[in-house]
Design a protein that fits this description.
The complex is a heterodimer of chains A (about 550) and B (about 350). Chain A is α+β, with helices and mostly antiparallel strands. In chain A, about 35% of the residues lie in helices and about 25% in strands. In chain A, helix 1 packs across helix 10, helix 6 (about 70-80) packs across helix 7 (about 85-90) and helix 7 packs antiparallel against helix 10 (about 145-155). Chain B is about 20% helix and about 25% strand. Chain B is globular, with a radius of gyration of 21 Å.
């Protein structure tokens, strides 16, 4: 636990990507199995909860902490720190003597190794046993160790390391390429002893041929003004960029998995799509959408289906999902990725003709002779579900990652509105103790003829750390009411908010929801009375969703 | 502890916050006012407590020296030094200054009226600090306390441990300059003294803003070892060297001259990971010049005070704790005493 705790703490503080990499490389090289494998799990997909026995961590911690701390002081502490694991680690009454970093530490008892801890939890039969075990472990660790333990069993350490960076470090530690690790990733399980053995040259490559695994996806660069002059219209095809989520469907031997762009397995949420692909053998790339009668529904509808482990039949009929394919990576066992786009496109069209799968269609190409013409076509299109255009180079193979010059995405400029700050909430993690989540509103006329603010959205990005400090101070100085971690403020600060679209929403008091709102500028100079009105917001709704005047 | 006789007049009739700060009506003076007043008693030299523009200032000789250095000799109409332990009568009350252990010259203000005793502690700590006199406990009826770190999550490790952590990092990464952000008055000199006690003998480099206060500490008898003003150092990137600077300088262009710097920050706030990460600190050093939670609770209990007023900080948590432990607590919410600059 000590080596892992130090690793987590260091990763949390190190800013530079390269230094984070070399810190992980050193750890993977110097730590034995199975501890390094469990650490790898924590830094990537999380330690599988099934292995630990699905710990109700929140309840266990409540039970453990209530024996020594007043609940009000606990709540105030939790609010201030912004993170439960860290709060408990700091509050825990046992104070081990601080270790002098210049002296060599006393050896850690084997029972505090990651492998031993996982083993001990998996041997617990009841929650009461797991709770006792957790309490005992916390008693034997110092502050840093307690924090790391709780992060480890809780799943997501959030130390500024993406799963991909951890995999990159793993590959680098043993002289491999990260794409090689990604190819086998979904065929191996924590604590990954066979994966380490292969990377170290001590074992065979894990056998993934019979499994539906993730293939690293090809990504696009946003197109910039300077790019156009170096591009020839003849070299590219255009497709609409659909407003859903990118998915990779991997079907092999009757098993189907659906992966997000990052390689997260999201199969559980979309059983109908899995069912469609059970009789196929392929890896396909496309957009997951909610569609009704051939029309793409607003992204908000798709959101109801995301982040679910299971889904009810009612959800399935209320939010019917559909996949619009734009690429084929494998046809049976044949790897199509080295082929140029145009050839893969032929294979995709042929495959759809042949197989005619339900709930699946083809993302049409948008024909154009020049970029000017393409621009005109696009300007004339306001269809629901279109987020922009994709430009794909005809000659390019399917490459993992984001390679300059092959694929471009061309999005519309965002919309902006001047809104008034209404509420601020304390952030979590890096922003704990700062008021960093902002709810803002626009003016609306009441029945008595007064102006009132009605909330239209919430944003927590788009400002610098320096601006955050000023916003935080402004919030503290203009608080009118406090509700736990939330403060209401007087109507005095205008935020210029950027967003991609507005949609009608029954869930919001204002009747609208913004898509991807973020703070564009802070208008310290603008009087709140001059901010926008609800009429200005409604004017941005699609025609069919506008309220009657 | 001897029980003190209760005065007829309750404290709040002669000691209360007004629009300029905490006012002692029976003595005719403010304590650490944030606006200019006729007569001020100043607990210590930090800028949120010691401001310019008062008619007359009463403080320890060290605090007066700090005010002269930072604000100028003309920053008040008159300065009256009151050494620790000496008593002065001001109108209806006797006033005495007692070490608070916060920084050089910091004092608690002990006010007695008809056998009834209030202690206004200013900022204080109980932990070891080789740059100032240690906190002295004064039993009292009313204790006025700060609450900067008044949450049970604040249990600071010994500062000596953090100094060794810094030296350890210097040994491990000799190719990088180590920039230690620290509040210029108090924290900077304590940090220097702590690494000296841990055996570091090389010159320590100073940002321009730290120079005059380090000289002042030396003049007051706090030996800090060899110091070099960064601008006077031979051109070089100071790889493997220790540089003290104000926290704000860590992010400024000034810091770019150094070799791939490790940014360290010595502050009690570094106990919270989110705080350190928010400020981009790579080496957080939990070194606080304020009492942590166990010290606050123990100090209040040891004073025997039946009534506690809380000036600034996490008053909700401390107030809750005291009221559930039979101590009458009141939050004063004094404006202008800035708990963030620690």
């Amino acid at each position: 636990m000590r080596a892992f705790a130090q690793l987590l703490e260091d990763l949390g503080y190190i800013q530079s990507r390269n230094r984070k990499l070399s810190r992980m490389v050193a750890y993977f090289r110097s730590t034995p199995d199975p501890d390094r494998g469990w650490a790898l799990a924590a830094l990537t997909d999380g330690v599988p909860q099934a292995v630990l026995g699905r710990l109700p961590l929140r309840r266990m911690l409540a039970e453990l902490t209530e024996t020594f701390i007043d609940p009000v002081l606990y709540r105030l502490s939790r609010d201030y720190v912004g993170d439960t694991a860290e709060t408990v680690a700091l509050l825990w009454p046992h104070r081990t003597a601080a270790q002098d970093p210049s002296e060599s530490p006393a050896p850690e008892p084997p029972a505090l190794g990651l492998g031993a801890i996982v083993h001990a939890f998996s041997n617990c039969d009841t929650t009461a046993q797991s709770t006792r075990l957790l309490g005992t472990l916390l008693d034997h660790l110092d502050t840093q160790g307690r924090w790391a333990l709780l992060k480890f069993v809780g799943g997501a350490p959030r130390v500024g390391v993406s799963a991909r960076l951890a995999k990159t470090a793993l590959a680098e530690a043993f002289g491999h390429d990260v794409a090689e690790v990604e190819e086998v990733w979904h065929g191996v399980e924590a604590p990954y002893t066979n994966l380490f053995a292969w990377l170290e040259g001590k074992g065979p490559r894990p056998d993934v041929d019979g499994l539906p695994i993730f293939r690293p996806v090809m990504l696009a660069h946003p197109i910039e003004d300077d790019d156009w002059k170096s591009l020839a219209a003849d070299d590219f095809v255009a497709e609409w960029k659909w407003d859903g989520i990118r998915v990779q469907i991997s079907a092999r031997g009757g098993q189907v998995r659906i992966f997000s762009r990052q390689g997260d397995d999201i199969s559980g949420a979309f059983p109908e799509i899995r069912l469609v692909f059970t009789s196929h053998d392929c890896v396909a790339d496309g957009e997951l959408l909610v569609m009704r009668k051939g029309e793409v529904a607003p992204f908000n509808d798709l959101q109801q289906r995301l982040n679910r482990k299971v889904v009810t039949p009612r959800m399935q009929s209320q939010y019917p999902v559909h996949v619009r394919l734009y690429d084929l990576l494998f046809d049976g066992k044949e790897d199509l990725r080295p082929l140029p786009f145009t050839e893969r496109r032929h294979r995709l069209e042929a495959w759809l003709q042949r197989e005619k799968p339900l709930l699946v269609d083809l993302s049409a190409l948008v024909p154009f002779a020049s970029f000017d013409e393409l621009n005109r076509i696009w300007a004339g299109t306001r269809a629901e579900g279109i987020e922009g255009l994709m430009l794909k180079r005809k000659e390019s193979a399917y490459h993992a990652g984001r390679i300059k010059g092959l694929w471009y995405k061309w999005k519309r400029a965002p919309l902006t509105l001047d809104c008034v700050l209404m509420y601020a909430q304390r952030g979590a993690g890096k922003r704990s103790s700062y008021y960093s989540d902002y709810t803002f509103g626009v003016w609306r006329m009441t029945q008595t003829g007064d102006q009132e603010l009605v909330p239209v959205g919430k944003a927590y990005s788009g400002f610098t750390d320096e601006e955050l400090r000023h916003l935080d101070k402004w919030v503290r100085d203009h608080t009118t009411e406090r509700f736990g971690p939330v403060r209401a403020v007087s109507a005095g600060l205008v935020l210029e908010v950027a967003f991609d679209a507005v949609q009608a929403s029954a869930r919001h008091k204002s009747g609208i929801a913004m898509r991807f709102p973020r703070i564009h500028r802070i208008r310290w100079d603008k009087p709140a009375a001059e901010a926008d009105t609800i009429e200005a917001v409604n004017a941005l709704l699609p025609q069919s969703e506008r309220p009657p005047n | 502890m001897t029980a003190l006789r209760r005065a007829a007049a309750p404290f709040h009739t002669w000691l209360y916050p007004d629009d300029r700060g905490l006012y002692c009506a029976a003595g005719g003076f403010h304590i650490d006012p944030h606006q200019p007043v006729e007569r001020a008693v100043i607990t210590h030299g930090h800028s949120d407590h010691a401001r310019a523009g008062h008619g007359a200032v009463l403080a320890t000789p060290e605090t007066i020296a700090v005010m002269h250095a930072r604000l100028g000799k003309e920053s008040a109409g008159s300065f009256q030094p009151l050494p620790y332990g000496e008593t002065i009568t001001l109108s209806e009350v006797q006033v005495r200054l007692v070490p608070a252990g916060h920084i050089l010259g910091s004092a608690q203000v002990v006010i007695e009226k008809q056998g009834c005793r209030a202690v206004v502690s200013g900022d204080y700590k109980r932990a070891h600090d080789p740059t100032c006199r240690p906190f002295e406990l004064v039993p009292c009826d009313l204790f006025v306390t700060e609450a900067t770190f008044a949450l049970p999550v604040f249990q600071h490790e010994p500062a000596e441990h953090e100094a060794r952590k810094l030296l350890h990092s210097l040994e491990e990464q000799p190719e990088r300059a180590h920039l230690v952000g620290a509040y210029g008055l108090g924290k900077c000199q304590r940090m220097i003294k702590l690494v000296r006690e841990a055996g570091y003998e090389k010159p320590i480099y100073l940002h321009g803003a730290m120079v005059s206060l380090c000289e002042l500490y030396e003049a007051c008898g706090v030996a800090l070892g060899p110091l070099v003003y960064v601008a006077d150092a031979e051109r070089g990137t100071l790889a493997g060297e220790l540089v003290m600077c104000p926290p704000s300088a860590l992010r400024e262009r000034w810091s770019r001259r150094f070799a791939d710097p490790v940014t360290a920050f010595a502050s009690g706030w570094m106990r919270i990971k989110g705080r350190a990460r928010q400020q981009g600190v790579e080496l957080p050093l939990v070194v606080s010049d304020h009492a942590d939670w166990p010290e606050l609770v123990a100090t209040i209990r040891e004073t025997g005070a039946g009534e506690v007023w809380i000036t600034h900080g996490r008053d909700d948590a401390l107030g809750h704790y005291l009221s559930t432990h039979g101590v009458k607590a009141r939050a004063l919410s004094i404006v202008g005493w800035d708990e963030e600059a620690e």
